[in-house]
Amino acid sequence: MAEPTTDPAATTDPEQPSYEAAREELVDVVRRLEAGGTTLEESLALWERGEQLAGTCQRWLDGARARLDEVLDADD
Fold first, then answer.
1. Where does residue 29 rank: exposed (0-12), middle (13-18), buried (19+ CB within 10 A)?
2. pTM here?
């Protein structure tokens, strides 16, 4: 069985945002949550979206680290 990839660029999901887009949207979500003035339902939806975006960013970072490790291991 093939190992799952940690590189989001290797996925076929057309809705997978780039790291930069996910990070930018996550910053916006945090700003909106910190500003307040939203209903409980809106706040929960923002929180959930923030969790999704944080996961996306983490997968990009994990994929980048794995690629760097591969290069560094190949140099040894």
1. buried
2. 0.77
Residues in the chain: 76
pLDDT along the chain (76 residues), means of 10: 49 78 98 97 98 98 96 86
The 10 Å CB-count burial string (b at 16+, else e) for 32-45 is: beeeeeeeeeeeee
What's the sign of the alpha-carbon dihedral 67, 71, 74, 76?
A: negative
C-alpha to C-alpha distances, 30 to 15, 23, 46, 66, 70, nearest whole angstrom: 21, 11, 8, 28, 34
